[in-house]
Amino acid sequence: MNAKTACDVLIAPGRGGLGGALVESWQQRELLYFLAWRDVKVRYKQTVLGVAWALLQPLVTMVVFTLVFHKLGRINAPKGMSYMVFAYAGLLPWLLFQSSLVQSSNSIVAASNLLTKVYFPRLLAPLSSVVSGLLDFAISLAVLAGLMVAFKVPVHWGLVCLPGFVLLAVLAALSVGIWLAALNAKYRDFRYVVPFMAQVWMFLSPVAYASKDLLDRLPPALQPFGWLYHLNPMVGVVEGFRWSLLGRSGAAPESILLSCAVTLALLMGGLYYFRSVERTFADLV
After folding, report:
1. Residue 278 above 90 pLDDT?
2. In a 3-state reduction of DSSP, which class is residue 149?
3. In sequence order, which residues have a C-beta less than 8 Å from that of residue 190 and are 6 or more positions away?
4. Average pLDDT for residues 139-159, to the nearest whole number?
């Protein structure tokens, strides 16, 4: 009887470029669900409060913002609105962005066991980290709905735009997260840089204040350069999200369009860079 011959099978990514990566990820979209659910379970594994942390983080931060920025810093919400609701509405898209950014930046390193054993579209690793953050966001959004009822904030037609701003927040997180995920696989310093960067970024975004208030307080010499502030993609996200829920516009439509353009540019550049280096991930992690 002839002995069976063994052969090695190499499983490698396709060579279809950026378009091929997107098609490949779509074809294996079911895997995205399982990876995202795994991230959720790992996040709350062996925790006492579990998903209650999704409620505590924005609530505690809202109280701190109210004491520091509103009471001590004399920063007010638009006339006729509670500052607590104003701050909470700004915190929700920001916390979605921040958690997604931090998790996705570490996604390639965290998935090292899978990367070195089987092939799957590498883009699914950071994407699943972003998708898993939507659960916490949904829980926190329910709390905001309760606050709006308690403070008698009326609902207006802008609510139909809310999914669009949520999608923009997700894309903003993914656009930066895939850059950082690829860089973190090679330079582990980014593991320490990203949380600090996110903290600074929060204060540069209109979370605890309205962007108009900040720009009005700029020295006259800096007023002509105020448009640079809107290059921060989270300006349009936070202000647009707040407007869609509370009906108070803090950013001009062109500011939101600029945020969309910056997010798209970062996303396309990040996808191209990620695709160009993904073959080296298994060797690096």
Report:
1. no
2. helix
3. 105, 180, 183, 184
4. 88
- Token pair 């369009």 is at which residue? 257
- pLDDT band for position 1 (cuts 50, 70, 90): very low
What's the CA gap between 165 and 167, in Å, rounded? 5
* Cα(44)–Cα(61) distance, integer angstroms: 20
DSSP code, position 77: P
Token pair in block for residue 138: 């949904």
C-alpha atoms less than 13 angstroms from C-alpha of 217 in its C-beta half-sphere: 7
Q: pLDDT tens digits, residue range 73-116?
A: 888 888 878 899 999 999 999 999 999 999 899 888 888 888 77
Query: How far is it, in rounded angstroms, from Cα 267 to Cα 174?
Result: 7
- Cα angle, residue 151 at apex, residues 61 and 159 outer, rounded to 5°: 85
What residue spans define the domains of the chain? 17-215+225-284
Taking a C-beta distance cutoff of 8 angstroms, is the pair 244, 159 a contact?
Answer: yes
User: Packing angle between helix 124-150 and helix 83-105, nearest 10 degrees?
Assistant: 170
* Per-residue confidence band for 18, with pLDDT thresholds at 50, 70 and 90: low
Distance CA 217, CA 57 (A): 30
Cut 0.70: pTM above it: yes
CB 238 within 8 A of CB 205: yes
